[in-house]
């Protein structure tokens, strides 16, 4: 599968050059950071196209590129396109609530819990949201490590370590400013790079008709491989998780206004629909080429189906385009990793350090804490990536479920349901998370469904019942006002205890 020396040098120079450009943008972005708000939510000045690009680039990482090609090559076939297309459905749904989420004028989801309910539920939320972010960062390290191992011929563990070091350095530079500025360009790179593989691979295999003739009908079906239950589950899981995912909501919080958040979400949905067919097509083409003996599958057999896309690209494309593809995939996965690290660092600095450890922290101290936390979490994610090489999509799906199970209901309903109380929130957080873990670790079987279904059911029922028995104080985003955003810790307590009435 390896390129010759000259080809490998070309690919390596392109990838390294591109990464240096991204780091340069990160350095440039530090000039725009004067406060924690600049670092965490880009000064709330992002427009719709920048929001769309950064949302798409954040979610199109290892799972949506390498993972989809892997699944298309395996059991799902062409129907693996739904792994990405369902994200398009999800962001269309998110667009409906995006203006409402933006109106809260917070920096993190735990901050919303602190203002709407109480400090303790915010702390619990901080913990159960940070763990999946670390897991998601590890997933992106895995994907980037696969690419780098192909480029440089290093072993997997060394490649992951190299990627992690680069990602950590890049992530702690410019915060959301640098991430959003590079994301749209990264989105274009990954789309162009993967599109470039299609004509070369189709020419080598003998055209799309040859792929259809070679593979069984199930592999070419748009739904049979993945199945409607999985498609509907993905829509449900994505929607539940993304609405309460820090890496998504942080972009909506950074929008200029509610309309901008709505348009950005809609445009992101369009990007997902447009991208979905590309990696799925590459996976089935690679499968047909292996069946016909055209593609050398040695590395795939030895290292697993996660090597399908790198193997295909190296064997069918000229080195320059291989370099563009690898740069795009690497930067996309790195972008996703930096977004997850930023989310984890934001939560710790804004909702743990500032509230519990140093309430009088200056803006400079908060920035330093956020960056140091990102460093620690990045190292932890590196350890996970080196030790756990499970299927990329499986890790993602569990991470999505874990954070959504308890957080979604009190977060979403808390924006408008006046009876929601802190007692109901605690029950919802605890039982929702417990439901997820119970199914994940086979303590119970909930009709064969993903744990998120039981978790959300337990979360919703407990929230509504206990809110009825112990109603809240009537505080919603409609009556806490935008002026509450930069209140001090003591004033935050006052807001929680004494709601304003319209």
UniProtKB/TrEMBL annotation:
| Gene Ontology biological process terms, A to Z | carboxylic acid transport; sodium ion transport
Q: How does it sit in the membrane?
A: Multi-pass membrane protein
Q: Which GO terms describe its molecular function?
A: symporter activity
The UniProt transmembrane annotation reads 6-28, 49-69, 81-101, 122-152, 158-177, 184-202, 226-245, 266-287, 307-329, 366-386, 392-412, 424-441, 447-466
The Gene Ontology CC terms held by the record are:
plasma membrane
CDD domains reported for this sequence: SLC5sbd
Q: Which Gene3D superfamilies match?
A: Sodium/glucose cotransporter
Question: Is Transport one of the keywords UniProt gives this record?
Answer: yes
Q: Which UniProt keywords apply?
A: Cell membrane, Ion transport, Membrane, Sodium, Sodium transport, Symport, Transmembrane, Transmembrane helix, Transport
Q: Does the keyword Ion transport apply?
A: yes
Per the record, the domain of life is Bacteria
Which NCBIfam families has this protein been placed in?
sss
Can you say what this protein is called?
A: Sodium:solute symporter
- Originating organism: Endozoicomonas elysicola
Species classification? Bacteria, Pseudomonadati, Pseudomonadota, Gammaproteobacteria, Oceanospirillales
């Amino acid at each position: 599968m390896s390129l010759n020396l000259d080809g490998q040098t070309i690919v390596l120079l392109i990838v390294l050059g591109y990464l240096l450009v991204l780091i340069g943008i990160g350095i440039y972005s530090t000039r725009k950071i004067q406060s924690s708000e600049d670092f965490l939510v880009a000064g709330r000045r992002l427009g719709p196209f920048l929001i769309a690009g950064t949302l798409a680039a954040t979610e199109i990482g290892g799972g949506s590129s390498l993972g989809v090609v892997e699944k298309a090559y395996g059991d799902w076939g062409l129907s693996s396109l739904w792994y990405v297309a369902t994200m398009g459905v999800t962001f269309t749904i998110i667009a409906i609530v995006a203006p409402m989420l933006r109106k809260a004028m917070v920096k993190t989801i735990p901050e919303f819990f602190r203002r709407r309910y109480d400090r303790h539920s915010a702390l619990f939320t901080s913990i159960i949201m940070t763990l999946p972010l670390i897991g998601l960062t590890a997933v992106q390290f895995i994907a980037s490590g696969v690419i780098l191992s192909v480029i440089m011929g290093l072993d997997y563990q060394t490649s992951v370590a190299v990627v992690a070091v680069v990602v950590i350095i890049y992530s702690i530079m410019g915060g959301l400013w640098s991430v959003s500025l590079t994301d749209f360009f990264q989105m274009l790179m990954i789309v162009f790079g993967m599109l470039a593989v299609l004509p070369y691979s189709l020419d080598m295999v003998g055209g799309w008709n040859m792929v259809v003739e070679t593979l069984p009908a199930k592999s070419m079906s748009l739904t049979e491989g993945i199945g409607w239950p999985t498609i509907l589950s993905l829509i449900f899981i994505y929607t539940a998780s993304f609405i309460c995912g820090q890496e998504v909501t942080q972009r909506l919080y950074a929008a200029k206004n509610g309309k901008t958040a709505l348009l950005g979400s809609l445009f992101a949905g369009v990007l997902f629909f447009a991208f979905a067919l590309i990696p799925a097509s590459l996976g089935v083409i690679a499968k047909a080429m292996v069946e016909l003996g055209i593609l050398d599958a040695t590395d795939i057999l030895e290292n697993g189906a996660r090597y399908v896309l790198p193997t295909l690209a190296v064997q069918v494309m000229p080195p320059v385009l291989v370099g563009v593809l690898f740069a795009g995939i690497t930067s996309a996965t790195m972008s996703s990793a930096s977004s997850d690290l930023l989310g984890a660092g934001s939560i710790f600095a804004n909702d743990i350090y500032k509230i519990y450890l140093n309430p009088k922290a200056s803006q400079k101290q908060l920035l330093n804490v956020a960056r140091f936390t990102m460093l620690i979490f990045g190292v932890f994610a590196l350890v996970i990536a080196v030790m756990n090489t499970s299927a990329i999509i499986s890790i993602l799906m569990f991470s999505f479920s874990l954070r959504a199970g308890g957080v979604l209901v009190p977060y979403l309903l808390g924006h408008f349901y006046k009876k929601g109380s802190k007692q109901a929130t605690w029950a919802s957080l605890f039982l929702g998370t417990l439901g997820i873990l119970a199914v994940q670790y086979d303590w119970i079987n909930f009709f064969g469904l993903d744990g998120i279904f039981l978790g959300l059911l337990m979360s919703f029922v407990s929230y509504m019942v206990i809110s009825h028995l112990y109603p809240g104080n009537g505080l919603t985003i409609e009556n806490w006002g935008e002026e509450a955003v930069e209140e001090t810790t003591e004033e935050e307590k006052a807001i929680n205890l004494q709601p304003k009435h319209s």
